[in-house]
Amino acid sequence: MFKSNLVLLSLRRLAFVITVTSICGTASAVDSMMDVLKPYYPLYNDALQCHGVIAPSGSVNGLTSEPYMTGYCIDIDRQKVVETAEGKRLYILVKGDISFDGSGKKLDYDDTRFDNGLAGMFVLKPKGSSWEVESARPTISVGSFGRGSTDWRLQKLSPNTWGFLNQHSNSLQGYYSDSLVILIPHKRSILENWIGINYNNEDAGKCEDDLSECDNVQTVFAVDTSKKVNGFYPLEMIVNGLIKGKIYHSTTYRIEYQKDKGYIVPDGYPLKDMGY
Q: Does an H or E element contain 127, and which?
């Protein structure tokens, strides 16, 4: 069984439950916080009545290999004040949905299966009666079908650092994958790490005759707060299922924080190159 000091988090369908201290409970407070973030989201779409930004959609032009740019309406998904050794810090996660084109016109098509949503992470420190940005990354490509992932979880990852966690899911032509997305403040920016957690190719016909190509694997993970590596708590990934004919039964892998890089998947991790 797991140690009592391991925080077990099942991500199969992202059943996150979190209590968030609300900073923006009123419309005026939301507007005030958006004033702080306005340099990162300078657009306001009058037709859609939303703050927004033009950013890469996650898909690329097959002729030029350049990313397609599109307009995202953004909202604050999660925010919480935490106490650190340096004082109070306000962690904010912004999510964005594809909503308008480069000219500001509302999009009138629904085929966004190749496009990602948008996320932005900010860490703010007090400045007088307001806040100022300490770490920021306003445009991160995450979320499926042009919709930004919601219900982000704020998780303590070191004695003095928190990160936002969520699940990115992708399904295409019988292949289904889930990835754990971890966003961690690092100096003035935000580190972004992706870790494969679930993968299934049964609907692609890979499991009918030859199990050597059959993949059906699920993962849960734990944050081991009993030790630190490079100042951060390691992750323990518990893998169950079948990958290329090999059976995994509660097989545990450790993923450690690497300085200036974040949580980097080791070569032996069976879902290293699956999904995303």
A: strand 118-127
What distance separates the 2 farthest-apart alpha carbons in the chain? 67
d(CA 32, CA 79): 14
> Which phi-psi region, left, alpha or beta, contains residue 53 (left: φ > 0; alpha: ψ -120 to 50)?
beta
Task: Name which of 100, 177, 183, 195 is nearest 139 in CA terms.
Answer: 183
Q: What is the pTM of this model?
A: 0.86
Measured in whole angstroms, the distance separating CA 186 from the mean position of its chain's CA atoms is: 16
CA dihedral 37, 43, 45, 50 (to 10 degrees): -10
Distance of CA 222 to the CA centre of its chain: 17
Instruction: List CB contacts of 171: < 8 A, sequence separation 6 or more.
Output: 144, 177
29-53 pLDDT, tens per residue? 455 677 889 999 999 999 899 999 9
**Per-residue pLDDT reduced to its tens digit, 175-221:** 899 999 999 999 999 999 999 999 999 888 888 877 888 999 999 99
CB 81 within 8 A of CB 21: yes
CA distances from 77 to 148, 149, 234, 235 (A): 10, 9, 26, 25
Residue whose structure tokens are 């299922």: 241
DSSP codes joined into one string, 148-182: ---S-EEEEEETTEEEEEEEEEEEETTEEEEEEEE
27 — phi, psi (to 5°)? -60, -40
Map tokens 């996150």 to a residue.
16
